[in-house]
Each structure stands twice: as C-alpha cells, then as structure tokens.
Amino acid sequence: MKRIVVKVGSNVLTRSDGKIDVTRMSNIVDQIVWLxxxxxxxxxxxxxxxxxxxxxxxxxxxxxxxxQRQLFSATGQVxxxxxYYDLFREYGIHIGQILTMKESFATRNEYxxxxxxxxxxxxxxxxxxxxENDTVSVTELMFTDNDExxxxxxxMMNAETLILLSNVDGIYDGSPKDARSSVIQxxxxxxxxxxxxxxxxxxxxxxxxxxxxxxAKKVAEEGIKVIIANGKRDNILIHLAIRPKETLHTEFxxxxxSPSNIKKWIAHSESFTKGTAFINRNAVEAxxxxxxxxxxxxxxxxxxxxxxxxDLISIVDEKGKAIAIGRSSYTATEARKNMGVHELKPxxxxxxxxxx
Length: 356
Hints:
Layout (H helix, E strand, L loop, with lengths): L1 E7 L1 H4 L8 H16 L2 E7 L2 H8 L8 H25 L5 E6 L7 H16 L3 E6 L13 H11 L4 E6 L19 E2 L21 H13 L3 E6 L5 H7 L7 E3 L8 H7 L7 E5 L1 H8 L11 E6 L6 E5 L5 E6 L4 H7 L14 E3 L1
Parallel strand pairs: 1-2, 1-5, 2-4, 3-4, 5-7, 6-8, 9-11
Antiparallel strand pairs: 7-8, 9-10, 11-12, 12-13
C-alpha cells in the first residue's frame, strides 16, 4: 500500500470572499476516498480552521492578531473537522483529529508518541486529519505554515509521496499572472529556484511558494517525492495518480538514499537546538567527504550556548555557516573543556548527525 500525505492549503478551501468552500472540500474528500480504494493510505494535513471561524463569528470588539487567531481557530476547528466528519461518513470512513504544535516535535519521545498515534490510526483504517493547534501556537515556535507541518509528517511517517495542494499549478519560471510563464515540471537536487519564485504570500495563508520549495527540497532529500499542484482543479489527486505526465504540476525528485528515522527527526529540528559548535576547516572537509564520519572534539574551536548530553546542537564552520545538526554526547561544559583533544568519544556520533 502506498502511503501519501496530502496537504490542503487555506487558498484551496476558501472562496474569494474568504469563506469556506464546502463544494471544494467535498471534491477533495471524494478524491481521497478514490485513492483509498486504489491501494493508497492517506494522511490529510488540512488548513482552514481560521477561515471557518471567521465565517461563523462576528466580533464587535477590536482584537489583536494573536487574539483573532486563537478565537477563530478555536471555533473554526470545530466546524472544519465536523465538515470532514460528515463528508467522510457518507462513505463509511472514519477520521481522527490530531492537533499538534512545533514544540511537540522537539523531543524524541513526543515525536515517537505522535508517530505511534498516527500509525495505529492507519492500521485501523482511520484517516488522520492534522492541523496546527493555533489556540496555543502563538510564539516564534509556530510552524511557518502547514507546508512545514506536512513535510515533517511525511518524513516522520515514511511516506512515499507528499502532495502540497495550493491555488496555482506549481512553481512557475516567472509570475503565474504572466501568460509567457510556464510551470517548472521537474526539480532535481541541484536546481536553483531562487530566481523564479515569487515572494508574495498566499491570500489566506501564512506561507508562500518559497516556503513550499524549501520544504519540498528538504523532504525530497530524505527520499520522498514531493508534488506541488493546484487543488482548485477538480480531481487533481486522481489525475496525478493515473496520468501524472499529462497533469500540470511541479515534482521534486526524491534522492535514492533515505536517512534513518532518527536522522529525519534531527533534519527538521533546527529550531530546537540548544547550542552551537564551531569547527575548523579540516573538520568541515571530513564531514562533507565521501566517508561517513563523526564529529570529533579535536576539530571543535568554539562552543556557544548551554546544553546537556543528548540535546541537539548546530554545527557551523569558522564563519558561522551551517554545516550540520546533531545530538551532543557531552554537556556544553564538558565540550568546552575537551575542545581540540584527540582520542575521545565524538562530540556528535555519525548516527545522530544530519548534514545540511
């Protein structure tokens, strides 16, 4: 059975007036049901709670941005999951709601708990419907948007494919509004998209195409195919399944070698690092070489921050350029004391090291 993660953005689920588009939701549910009948196991990451809340409530007093997000997401999530419940129930399919936060991926235990929850749902034929818990995710530790969340879920659940549904057909080589622009159909690892991607954000979402591209490239490097397509097009998921070459979209080719599960967790954990290890040129060359090596203390020239054994740390070169993320085998105090010393256990073992 092919496991896929489908992320549906706010722009797909809303009309031009910002209200929820129930007809579009129904069409997406129909497509997911079709996929299930054709040997696909689907995890759904869905935006739309804030849009649902705004369509339900008329607020008479002025609220700041945090208050608005908390109020509309809290009331709107009830409506959103209720709509999904009713639509899937027509097919006799059960769904389960998972509200999560970026901080819930910070520790290995919480990460594994979420993975176990989704796994048992899938094993019992229940479709996980996932969204960020906007009622409490109001700090700088919010996900950029649900693109980031869906990428993390796809990695965590070892999905074969991640499909990001937006309101455009993919990444264009110019402005999507320009008739001379065309969709970039295939993106390989060495393809630089910075000259093509527009910087404007989506009308009803937090992220934009830059976010999608960055997430897509990282997830593809972990061995997962990523597709960006237009969720406003009827039956887009079915067309991608049965005639992908004839269906307009942007596809990020997956890398053949997939990292271990713990390295996948580390890859998405740069926000949770507790300190920084600065390393010399020889250490940089060793880490980037063809052989799998650990980071030894002999190559460390400076330690910043306070961390404990087992915490994640950033690894940078002498100029501060990111090289890797890893789990420290020492406390910050121990690492500082032993910098430059030969023949000690690694600061970061290769098994717990993810190269940027």
